[in-house]
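Predict the 3D structure for this chain.
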Amino acid sequence: MEKMEQLKEKLLFFERLAIMGKLILCSAHELNGLLEDIKDFLSLVQDNENDPVKKGHLTEALGGLQKMSLIIRSLLSNSNVINQNDYRDKR
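Done. Predicted structure below.
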């Protein structure tokens, strides 16, 4: 009986872990969309900016946003590989 309880606890743990993973992926997807909007807006501002110092700051900000976006896209693409592997295992 104790073995069965341990297995139930492990199952519950992994179910919670899966739910957390899905929430994180949904959040990452939403954040990526917001980052893209911010990048588009900053690009428009940069295109219309004549001050070289301000233009340089905008370039740095866009570079940082690009890095953040790449990290999130990498997370999302890795999750797709995991999801595809889960699907294959269930067949």
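Residues 25-90 form one domain.
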